[in-house]
Amino acid sequence: MFLFAFDCSAAPPKDKIRVGWVTSLSGPYASGVAGTNGPVYDFWIDEINAKGGIFVKEYGKRLPLEVIKYDDKSDVGTMTKLLEKTILEDKVDFIFAPWGTAMLYAAAPIATKHKYILLGGPGGAVKLKEIMDKVPYFFSVLNTAETQMPALAQILVEAKVKKAAIIYIQDLHGIEYRDVALAEFKKRGIEVAFAKSFPHGTKDLTPMLKDAKAANVDAFLGFVYPDEAFLVTGQAMEVGFSPKAYFLTVGVCLAPYRDTFSAKGIEGVMGAGAWNGKVSAGAKKLEEGLIKRKAVVDYWGQLHYYASLQFFEKAIEEAGTLDQVKIRDIMATRTYETALGPMKFEKGFNTNHAGEIGQWQKGVFEIIDPGKKRTANPEYPKPAWAPKPPAKK
After folding, report:
1. Most buried among 28, 70, 111, 121, using CB within 10 Å?
2. Dihedral angle at the C-alpha atoms of 210, 169, 295, 80, nearest 10 degrees?
């Protein structure tokens, strides 16, 4: 008679960590994915796999990452269905975030229902505060209107701006930035000539630019996504509208924005969020790595996304398991050093941002926040538009 001893506590064999990524590969959000979190997620995956994966004590080895990707076609309903599919049918170990504020708002309750950690990528909203106590598995990474608009208002006061015009896209991003900006400008005595909205897919914003020019405003603000940022800047050049301060949210931070209009062409343009290679050695490594890969560099969110993934890796390794409940509890209480510096979440929100407001100066997206994070003093007034360079043949 033979007796065999089995270790019932040992984890079943596992050779990889499977990650579900539902994101916008087509539709109006696709350019945002390609120019913001997409390159960073790919960079991090390759970085992790190059060292054999994430070490998980439960399995006694490093586990490489395998990504299962789906196209939500920039549609919230499609995204929610595919997110459920990747969790329930594909049974992935973790999920990546979809793109955009509205998508995150819809994805957070689904992630929490299934007890899956949702590490926020592009997108962030003050409105998320209304549900954060109900979505403990969601961690918001990016700056929001609540952190950026007070900084911008203070910068505009510093620039002696008296009158502004606002245009905004008709979604949660645009509406929220409009509301916070109006409140902050009112506090500081900045008159708003108008705040006009437009739908996704708009191809001509010149009427609004002409209205702003006719109103003789000295600041123009657009709460927009990349496609609209490129569109409205080109059309502002065409109509000769160059106010003292020119600010757009998503799009200005992209290196292709600078390259499209030339460094001289967009000198002094301001945008939401900011980082550059001066922030830290890790930031410089990320910037150089993305450039080497010929990936789009986004000087608002990419450092935040990369740092959050570093944070996530450290939490998994500390937990020593792929159990999402245990990892989530660690993420909610720990501070880890990242390329962004010390990173910590309080009530689900990242407490450390590289910069709230950036400005293109001599080809570098400088942090111009009031305070110690400033990497360059703001440039006032914004120089007149330089001629747009001819298209490459």
Report:
1. 121
2. -170
Contact 22, 79 (CB under 8 A): yes
> What tens digit of pLDDT does each residue of 194-240 get?
999 999 889 999 999 999 999 999 999 999 988 899 999 999 999 99
Strand order in the sheet with 335-338: 335-338, 341-346, 349-350
Residue 393 has pLDDT above 90, yes or no: no
**How far, in Å, CA of 279 to CA of 275, rounded?**
7
Buried b (16+ CB within 10 A) or exposed e, 43-75: bbbebbbeeebbebeebeeebebeeeebbbbbb
Q: 189-203, pLDDT tens digit by residue?
A: 999 999 999 998 899
pLDDT in tens, 245-260: 999 998 999 999 999 9
Residue with tokens 């001893």: 5
